[in-house]
Amino acid sequence: MKYSAPLRPFVILAIIISAAEASSSLNELQEPLKEGIEWRDCNIVGPLNASCGHFEVPLDWNDPSAGKGRLAVIKYHATRPAAERKGVLFTHPGGAAGDAMGWLIARSEVMMNLLVNGTYDLVSWDIRGTPTRNEHIMLHEYSTIPSAPRCFPDQAVPNQLWESIYNMKVPTSNITFSHPEQASLYSIIYRLYEYRRLFAKSCTLNSREEYSPMLKYMGTAATTRDLVALADYLQGPGTPINFHGVSKGSLIGSHLINMFPEVYVLDMLFLIDPQNLEITSWTGYMPSQMPTRPSINSRNCVRPVPSNVQF
């Protein structure tokens, strides 16, 4: 199977504190995969035309008998005439199973006008482990399966966990390899690793019974395979994939490079300067920041890295 590339050792669990209700029974997950997407109007107020739908995928790309899942997908249609359109730009903000559809809605005009100049369709999707939206939230009828597990029996436990993390005294000065505060920083990093280990263990122990087995299907490797399958459907098999990863979303891009070197093209993986721009204002500066990264935007630098490429 095309999407059954060897698993990479780096896996990011899409886990989040949530008591999301299951939107489908396990019996429904055993039904045959439906091909394609039944697009519907997203009913979003704004000047751009957006379509929403579900795209079904195998729970386990290496074992079709495991059943199926689905991805909630949103597509903003290119605004230029058909002759000027260039294809699809897939984008994802990363985060701990954040609402990618809502993220794209909030930034759609900036990205369409400043990032792609109306020449690309913009597509994003809620990855595996994204919590189900409350019925009062926009696009609540679209949900990804598997959704978020419940990681803690009550809110008091995670509150204590995060309070412990926030109370750590993280060095605020610029730290180099020879900086005297480096040891202190590494000590905090090791403690954070332990917190994350406890977090993952808690998710395994406390997930609702019907979704506990789903944890093994949530990870960056599976998300990357989902992206390739979605791209094949929207663009045609083997068409180069233009991917724009923001923050932790760029890790999907790094997995794409390593797992599917024959299909990726990260011509549009833009890295925003973290020293000059805080995370909340990056969209307004994309046009001025992108030209400062010619080596990153170069196709040669995202292929298997030659010795002369410096990042």
Taken together, the total number of domains comes to: 2
Spatial separation of the terminal alpha carbons: 33 Å
Oligomeric state as shown? single chain
CATH class of the largest domain: Alpha Beta
- Main sheet specs: 7 strands, mixed
Strands in their spatial order, largest beta sheet: 1-2-3-5-4-6-7
Keywords: Signal
Signal peptide: 1-22
Protein name: AB hydrolase-1 domain-containing protein
Which descriptors apply to this entry?
311 residues; alpha/beta; Rossmann fold; 2 domains
Overview of the molecule:
- This is AB hydrolase-1 domain-containing protein.
- Residues 1-22 form the signal peptide.
- Keywords: Signal.
- It comes from Cerrena zonata.
- This protein is α/β, with parallel strands linked by helices and 311 residues long.
- It has 2 domains: 28-150 and 217-269, Alpha/Beta hydrolase fold, catalytic domain (Rossmann fold); 156-206.
- Helices cover 28% and strands 13% of the residues.
- It has 7 helices and 7 strands; from the N terminus they run E-E-E-E-H-E-H-H-H-E-H-E-H-H.
- It has helices spanning 100-115, 156-166, 182-206, 220-235, 250-259, 286-289, 294-297; strands at 40-41, 50-58, 68-76, 87-92, 120-126, 241-245, 264-265.
- A 7-stranded mixed beta sheet has the order 1-2-3-5-4-6-7, sandwiched between helices.
- Strand 6 (241-245), helix 5 (250-259) and strand 7 (264-265) form a beta-alpha-beta unit.
- The longest helix is centred in the middle third of the chain and has 25 residues, at 182-206.
- The radius of gyration is 20 Å and the shape is globular.
- Residues 3-24 and 267-311 have low confidence and may be disordered.
